[in-house]
Amino acid sequence: MNLRCDLHSHSTVSDGTLTPTELIMRAHENEVELFALTDHDATEGLHEAASAASKVGMKFVPGIELSVTWSHQTIHIVGLGINPDDTVLNQGLKGLRDFREERGAKIAHKLEKAGFENALEGARKYSNGEILSRTHFAQYIVEQGKARDVRQVFKRYLVNGKPGYVSGQWASLEDALSWIHGAGGLAVIAHPARYKISATRLRQLIAEFKELGGLGFEAISGSHSPDEEQRMTQLAKQFELYISKGSDFHSPENIYRELGAMQDVQPGSVPLWHSTEWKDRIGDIS
User: Are 216 and 244 in contact (CB under 8 A)?
Assistant: First the structure.
């Protein structure tokens, strides 16, 4: 039985535009039955989201999306069912957020050279103070009338080879999975079709991820096309990973897909929430 679920979303705690409570209410209105908040490198919204979900009778999973550097490539690992108060996890998050601040200052400097004055102050207007994201710089640039939306800003200014791009070293894959597992969670490779790496390197990533105890593969993602979802589902089967799905929702204005509006897990694939590991660590969703 498929479930209307969404296991990847963002709030104002990271680079979303809805508060955790507003996000829960939108998911509830969309009849989402199982929901996870997975802010970038931050857990501060999880208690609020859990409380809001309880009030509307929605099954809620506390989560996070960790920034990882693997083979000189930035990838994202989602942790589901984590304890947001875990000491080791939060020590790791502090390091990631310190790096975000350093990177933000460098991005601002490069954008100012490209003609954007007060870029750091402009970006901070869109951040609630928990983390500083490239999305906050993108929102500022849209405000300046230099692009029609956030996606266009990334393409013009913030990706590799563009004026505001800054590289850096995030967590290692080993550390990210260690933090997630130590906090009682299950690890998932987020939106795998989005990474600009060869099929061979993607397989290498999956193999390392699985060797470190990773279980989930976000084959069904708001940023995947139907063909990509089909290919990623087949890849998950080959590596015997469980299927996860999530919209990667950030805001009503810049949307990949609406909360909960993803296709069902294909027959023959095992959803992560049906796994023994999920039932043992997170609980039975039936």
Answer: yes
Q: pTM for this one?
A: 0.91
The CA distance from 218 to 189, in Å, is: 6
Rounded CA-CA distance 35/162 in Å is 35
204-229 confidence digits (pLDDT tens): 999 999 999 999 999 999 999 999 99
Phi, psi torsion values for 37, nearest 5 degrees: -95, 125
Distance separating alpha carbons of residues 273 and 286, to the nearest angstrom: 10
The C-alpha atoms of residue 217 and residue 271 are separated, in whole angstroms, by 10
Q: What is the CA radius of gyration of the chain?
A: 18
Instruction: Measure the CA–CA gap between 48 and 4, rounded to whole angstroms.
Output: 22
Instruction: Give Cα separations from 28 to 22, 34, 55, 57, 189 (angstroms).
Output: 10, 10, 11, 9, 25
Whether the CA torsion 117, 95, 41, 218 is positive or negative: it is positive
